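@channel anyone free to eyeball this complex?
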Amino acid sequence: RKEVEQDPGPFNVPEGATVAFNCTYSNSASQSFFWYRQDCRKEPKLLMSVYSSGNEDGRFTAQLNRASQYISLLIRDSKLSDSATYLCVVNMHFGNEKLTFGTGTRLTIIP
Amino acid sequence: EAGVTQSPTHLIKTRGQQATLRCSPISGHTSVYWYQQALGLGLQFLLWYDEGEERNRGNFPPRFSGRQFPNYSSELNVNALELEDSALYLCASRSWEQFFGPGTRLTVL
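replying in thread with the prediction:
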Protein backbone atom coordinates (compact mmCIF):
# COMPACT_ATOMS: atom_id res chain seq x y z
CA ARG A 1 0.00 0.00 0.00
CA LYS A 2 1.33 3.44 -0.89
CA GLU A 3 2.07 5.79 1.99
CA VAL A 4 -0.03 8.53 0.41
CA GLU A 5 -2.70 7.74 -2.17
CA GLN A 6 -4.61 10.03 -4.44
CA ASP A 7 -6.97 9.51 -7.33
CA PRO A 8 -4.83 10.59 -10.29
CA GLY A 9 -7.81 11.87 -12.24
CA PRO A 10 -8.03 13.61 -14.55
CA PHE A 11 -10.93 15.63 -13.25
CA ASN A 12 -12.49 17.74 -16.01
CA VAL A 13 -14.82 20.22 -14.37
CA PRO A 14 -16.81 23.13 -15.83
CA GLU A 15 -15.92 26.60 -14.68
CA GLY A 16 -17.88 27.63 -11.61
CA ALA A 17 -18.40 24.10 -10.35
CA THR A 18 -17.29 22.70 -7.01
CA VAL A 19 -14.72 19.95 -7.00
CA ALA A 20 -13.40 17.80 -4.16
CA PHE A 21 -10.30 15.67 -3.86
CA ASN A 22 -9.51 13.08 -1.26
CA CYS A 23 -6.22 11.65 -0.17
CA THR A 24 -5.49 8.78 2.20
CA TYR A 25 -2.35 8.12 4.18
CA SER A 26 -1.17 4.91 5.75
CA ASN A 27 0.86 6.01 8.75
CA SER A 28 -1.37 6.92 11.67
CA ALA A 29 1.54 8.67 13.35
CA SER A 30 1.77 11.26 10.59
CA GLN A 31 2.24 14.71 11.99
CA SER A 32 1.45 17.38 9.45
CA PHE A 33 -0.42 17.65 6.20
CA PHE A 34 -0.40 19.95 3.21
CA TRP A 35 -1.89 20.52 -0.20
CA TYR A 36 0.46 21.73 -2.91
CA ARG A 37 -0.38 22.62 -6.47
CA GLN A 38 1.93 22.02 -9.37
CA ASP A 39 1.49 23.61 -12.76
CA CYS A 40 2.81 21.84 -15.83
CA ARG A 41 6.62 21.75 -15.81
CA LYS A 42 6.79 23.99 -12.76
CA GLU A 43 7.75 23.43 -9.16
CA PRO A 44 5.14 22.58 -6.52
CA LYS A 45 3.80 25.52 -4.57
CA LEU A 46 2.14 25.36 -1.19
CA LEU A 47 -1.60 25.83 -1.44
CA MET A 48 -2.48 25.35 2.20
CA SER A 49 -1.63 23.47 5.35
CA VAL A 50 -4.30 21.16 6.71
CA TYR A 51 -5.29 21.32 10.35
CA SER A 52 -7.41 18.98 12.42
CA SER A 53 -10.06 21.63 12.86
CA GLY A 54 -10.26 22.20 9.12
CA ASN A 55 -9.26 25.41 7.48
CA GLU A 56 -10.50 27.65 4.73
CA ASP A 57 -8.73 30.08 2.45
CA GLY A 58 -11.10 31.86 0.12
CA ARG A 59 -12.57 29.31 -2.26
CA PHE A 60 -10.44 26.51 -0.84
CA THR A 61 -11.32 24.35 2.16
CA ALA A 62 -9.10 21.62 3.55
CA GLN A 63 -10.06 19.03 6.13
CA LEU A 64 -8.28 16.31 8.00
CA ASN A 65 -9.88 13.16 9.37
CA ARG A 66 -7.32 11.44 11.57
CA ALA A 67 -9.60 8.56 12.50
CA SER A 68 -10.07 7.59 8.86
CA GLN A 69 -6.65 8.84 7.80
CA TYR A 70 -7.75 11.00 4.97
CA ILE A 71 -7.38 14.59 3.86
CA SER A 72 -9.71 16.45 1.59
CA LEU A 73 -9.57 19.58 -0.51
CA LEU A 74 -12.68 21.38 -1.71
CA ILE A 75 -12.55 24.05 -4.40
CA ARG A 76 -15.65 26.16 -4.82
CA ASP A 77 -16.56 28.35 -7.79
CA SER A 78 -13.67 26.90 -9.78
CA LYS A 79 -11.70 29.18 -12.10
CA LEU A 80 -9.75 28.39 -15.23
CA SER A 81 -6.61 29.27 -13.29
CA ASP A 82 -7.29 26.40 -10.89
CA SER A 83 -6.24 23.94 -13.60
CA ALA A 84 -3.20 22.18 -12.18
CA THR A 85 -2.09 19.03 -10.44
CA TYR A 86 -2.90 18.96 -6.74
CA LEU A 87 -0.48 17.13 -4.50
CA CYS A 88 -1.38 15.71 -1.13
CA VAL A 89 1.62 15.83 1.18
CA VAL A 90 2.17 14.18 4.53
CA ASN A 91 5.02 14.67 6.97
CA MET A 92 5.57 11.31 8.54
CA HIS A 93 8.10 12.05 11.20
CA PHE A 94 8.18 15.09 13.41
CA GLY A 95 11.81 16.06 13.90
CA ASN A 96 12.91 13.67 11.18
CA GLU A 97 11.47 15.53 8.31
CA LYS A 98 10.57 13.61 5.23
CA LEU A 99 7.61 14.86 3.27
CA THR A 100 5.84 12.13 1.39
CA PHE A 101 3.95 13.20 -1.68
CA GLY A 102 1.00 11.64 -3.36
CA THR A 103 1.28 11.27 -7.11
CA GLY A 104 -1.18 14.11 -7.56
CA THR A 105 -4.65 14.66 -8.93
CA ARG A 106 -4.88 16.44 -12.22
CA LEU A 107 -7.63 19.03 -12.53
CA THR A 108 -8.72 20.76 -15.71
CA ILE A 109 -11.33 23.49 -15.55
CA ILE A 110 -13.33 23.72 -18.74
CA PRO A 111 -14.66 27.09 -19.94
CA GLU B 1 12.93 38.13 -0.59
CA ALA B 2 14.61 35.74 -3.02
CA GLY B 3 13.19 32.25 -3.22
CA VAL B 4 14.97 28.95 -3.54
CA THR B 5 17.30 28.98 -6.51
CA GLN B 6 18.68 26.04 -8.45
CA SER B 7 21.25 25.65 -11.17
CA PRO B 8 21.54 24.67 -13.89
CA THR B 9 18.03 24.81 -15.29
CA HIS B 10 18.74 22.00 -17.71
CA LEU B 11 21.51 19.44 -17.77
CA ILE B 12 22.21 16.86 -20.44
CA LYS B 13 24.57 14.00 -19.71
CA THR B 14 25.34 10.57 -21.08
CA ARG B 15 25.20 7.25 -19.30
CA GLY B 16 28.04 6.71 -16.88
CA GLN B 17 28.81 10.39 -16.42
CA GLN B 18 28.43 12.35 -13.23
CA ALA B 19 26.01 15.22 -12.64
CA THR B 20 26.22 18.00 -10.07
CA LEU B 21 23.15 20.03 -9.21
CA ARG B 22 23.15 23.10 -6.99
CA CYS B 23 20.63 24.71 -4.69
CA SER B 24 20.52 27.86 -2.59
CA PRO B 25 17.83 28.00 0.08
CA ILE B 26 15.79 30.97 1.12
CA SER B 27 17.81 33.29 3.31
CA GLY B 28 17.55 32.18 6.93
CA HIS B 29 16.53 28.60 6.12
CA THR B 30 19.03 26.02 7.29
CA SER B 31 17.34 22.90 5.89
CA VAL B 32 17.57 21.78 2.30
CA TYR B 33 15.64 18.89 0.79
CA TRP B 34 16.18 17.17 -2.52
CA TYR B 35 13.46 15.36 -4.47
CA GLN B 36 13.32 13.49 -7.74
CA GLN B 37 10.27 13.76 -9.97
CA ALA B 38 10.44 11.33 -12.84
CA LEU B 39 7.95 11.65 -15.70
CA GLY B 40 4.57 10.36 -14.65
CA LEU B 41 5.67 9.70 -11.08
CA GLY B 42 5.25 11.61 -7.87
CA LEU B 43 7.98 13.41 -6.03
CA GLN B 44 10.36 11.00 -4.38
CA PHE B 45 12.33 12.17 -1.36
CA LEU B 46 16.07 11.94 -1.89
CA LEU B 47 17.98 13.71 0.86
CA TRP B 48 17.57 16.13 3.74
CA TYR B 49 20.38 18.35 4.97
CA ASP B 50 20.26 20.53 8.02
CA GLU B 51 23.04 22.58 9.57
CA GLY B 52 25.56 20.98 7.25
CA GLU B 53 24.70 17.38 8.01
CA GLU B 54 22.71 14.70 6.22
CA ARG B 55 19.65 14.06 8.39
CA ASN B 56 17.64 11.63 6.34
CA ARG B 57 17.84 9.76 3.10
CA GLY B 58 15.25 8.25 0.78
CA ASN B 59 15.36 4.88 -0.95
CA PHE B 60 18.01 5.74 -3.50
CA PRO B 61 21.33 4.01 -4.22
CA PRO B 62 24.58 5.43 -2.81
CA ARG B 63 25.51 6.94 -6.16
CA PHE B 64 23.08 9.71 -5.18
CA SER B 65 24.93 11.85 -2.68
CA GLY B 66 25.27 15.43 -1.68
CA ARG B 67 26.49 17.92 0.80
CA GLN B 68 25.54 21.17 2.44
CA PHE B 69 27.94 24.07 2.72
CA PRO B 70 28.42 26.49 5.63
CA ASN B 71 26.23 29.05 3.85
CA TYR B 72 23.47 26.36 3.72
CA SER B 73 23.59 25.97 -0.03
CA SER B 74 23.70 22.39 -1.21
CA GLU B 75 24.92 20.15 -3.99
CA LEU B 76 23.40 16.94 -5.23
CA ASN B 77 25.78 14.59 -7.00
CA VAL B 78 24.67 11.68 -9.12
CA ASN B 79 27.42 9.31 -10.16
CA ALA B 80 27.39 6.64 -12.87
CA LEU B 81 24.30 8.12 -14.48
CA GLU B 82 21.65 5.75 -15.78
CA LEU B 83 18.90 6.45 -18.27
CA GLU B 84 16.24 6.23 -15.55
CA ASP B 85 17.91 9.09 -13.67
CA SER B 86 16.34 11.42 -16.20
CA ALA B 87 13.96 13.52 -14.14
CA LEU B 88 13.21 16.90 -12.65
CA TYR B 89 15.27 17.36 -9.49
CA LEU B 90 13.70 19.74 -7.03
CA CYS B 91 15.28 21.39 -4.06
CA ALA B 92 13.27 22.82 -1.19
CA SER B 93 13.99 24.76 1.96
CA ARG B 94 11.70 25.21 4.91
CA SER B 95 10.63 27.14 7.88
CA TRP B 96 7.30 25.46 8.62
CA GLU B 97 6.28 24.77 5.03
CA GLN B 98 8.64 23.69 2.30
CA PHE B 99 9.28 26.09 -0.54
CA PHE B 100 10.54 24.65 -3.78
CA GLY B 101 13.03 25.90 -6.29
CA PRO B 102 12.27 25.79 -10.02
CA GLY B 103 14.17 22.53 -10.45
CA THR B 104 16.92 21.14 -12.63
CA ARG B 105 15.79 18.99 -15.50
CA LEU B 106 18.38 16.26 -15.97
CA THR B 107 18.35 14.28 -19.18
CA VAL B 108 20.55 11.21 -19.49
CA LEU B 109 21.18 10.03 -23.02
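from a first look: Chain B has a mean pLDDT of 93.
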